[in-house]
Design brief:
The complex is a heterodimer of chains A (323) and B (268). With 323 residues, chain A is of the alpha/beta class. Chain A has helices spanning 16-32, 46-53, 72-86, 97-110, 216-229, 237-241, 272-278, 307-322, and strands at residues 4-9, 36-42, 58-63, 90-93, 113-118, 120-124, 127-134, 139-145, 150-154, 170-173, 184-191, 204-208, 232-235, 262-266, 283-288, 301-304. In chain A, the strands form three sheets. Chain A has a seven-stranded parallel β-sheet with strand order 5-9-4-1-2-3-10, sandwiched between helices. Chain A has a five-stranded parallel β-sheet with strand order 13-12-14-15-16. Chain A has a three-stranded antiparallel β-sheet with strand order 6-7-8. The longest helix of chain A is centred in the first third of the chain and has 17 residues, at 16-32. The relative contact order of chain A is 0.12. Chain B is of the alpha/beta class and 268 residues long. Chain B is 29% helix and 29% strand. In chain B, a hairpin with a 4-residue loop joins strand 3 and strand 4 (28-29). The chains are: A alpha/beta (323), B alpha/beta (268). Chains A and B meet through helix 4, strand 5, strand 7, strand 8 and strand 11 of A and helix 4, strand 9, strand 11, strand 14 and strand 15 of B. Strand 16 of chain A pairs parallel with strand 15 of chain B, so a sheet runs across the interface.
Amino acid sequence: MNNVVICLFASAGFDKSAQGLAGAGRRLADELGGQLRAIVVGANAAALGTQVACVADTVSLADQAELAEYQPETYLKALVSLCRDLAPHAVLLANDTYSQEIAPRLAYRLGGSAVGDGVEVRVEGEVLRVSRQIYGGKAQAVIELKRTPAVVWLRARSFAPAPPRTEAGEIKQVALELQSDTRTRIIERQREELNEARLEEARVIVSGGRGIGGPEPFTAELKPLAELMGAQMAASRAACDAGWVPPTWQVGQTGKKVSPDLYLAIAITGASQHIVGISEAKNVAAINIDPDAPIFKHCRFGIVEDYHKVVPLLRAKLAALQK
Amino acid sequence: MNILVCLKQILDPEIPARDFRIDPIKREAERGAANLVTNIFCENALETALQLRERIGDAKITVLSYGAPTVEDALRKALAMRADTAALVVNDGHPHPDPLAVAHVLSAAMRKLGAFDLIMAGREAGDWGAGQTGGLIAEELGLPCIAFVDRIEAVNGKLRLKRQTDSGWELLEAEPPVVVTITNNEHNVPRIPKVRDVMMSYRQPLTTWTLDDLGINTDEARAGNSYYEVADLFIPQKETRCEFVTGETLEEKVEAFAKRIVEVTGAL
């Protein structure tokens, strides 16, 4: 009864997020004195099942055509059914779009409680306590989940992976009866081509904020700098809301949570909601005209100047240093 | 089309961090000098609803909130933005009920208000940011739910929804009734109400109910913490010392800055 379930989608593979989720699940299962059980849903999900079996005690594999692509109602039904069979004490998910969409509903159907965006999970007695940031990162709360199972979605990428098992866990194929739910259907999917690689995996990020002033400097000034640095580009919510760059570039509380070696914030004031997204960055540096901009409180180093003047010079200096 | 938009009034989350205080006993933020505002994602939801009504013509927008009597201001503002009707459930129980308690009350109010084709909520609130109200309302009412929507069209009796994902966007088709949660984009920035509409909003009727009126009167329901509870609340102490690069000229400063970049990233 003290088992921990992790929910994985085959479409995402065993990425950094899935690995972090397994790591968090293993440590929680150890604390609870239970097993780590993985649920894998999708089509052609066998490969992921095998990978997960290296770290989980058991794997329930729903590998069927109806689950080839994520559809909210179908995936929810699949997870509910698989979780009911395993009767876990806790269910962990990552904080991707799909997991966030269905986790509270999963908790409801299992008669449990949910909490999301967790940065730490602990056990007090048998009760789960989840730490999360509130008020845009200005405070941290510890939430005690009062129903079982406790369903938690985590910032999975920031958790260390699980140690491998000496022998692979047992893989159990499950055939689910899934009538397709026609009330909602995803009919088209589009990946943003501008930022092919994942921002969450980027080693260096060049990010622009409201102070950039328009869409043109993103292409004319920041992009050449990012290319020179081998960096990916990102933005604050203000720049995304203004329509200067696509919403997928947004870093912050309701955008991406990134963890690069260097996050270079250009003309970003640094509202706490933005800082939430970069708290895992190894180094933050900023170019800002305002010496009192809150971003500098989170910086390793900074320069107080107009970015229009700094960026062209910076490109020249970096190019010279690279030679 | 009958549209319902849920609104939450919160302490302004844009208050500077240095002015932000918490009450560690009550485990809640202190009001202090902060204004009460409507959660931005709720306003994005209302704006999305208003634009949908402008496109299809025949639609009625009801705004609904659960909270302290001050929430009337948020509902009046929604009326000034030209929502059609407003309803307030006054919270006389736990001042900060958990997401399930909120969803339970809002769903009960919706049943009393009538049948809705489209129920909208913000993706999360700028205060506690639980991000659960929409999904839990869907479960209470037995409806499907789609999250992170930023645009809605009505096409042949169905709804066409565009939503943001981690890597791009998706287009969905939904048969009403459905619950959606709304996120921000450049097209749903909330409009500023006209002065005349602000004045008019104070003359419009506003339905007010208590929990008793909704038949929610058990101690457990009033306690509003059977789902989860705040065990601890604190302000993390973390301050990094920023090294401001120095130099006689701009060029020297930028050179120092470039060198620091190379140091922390290794060879670029």
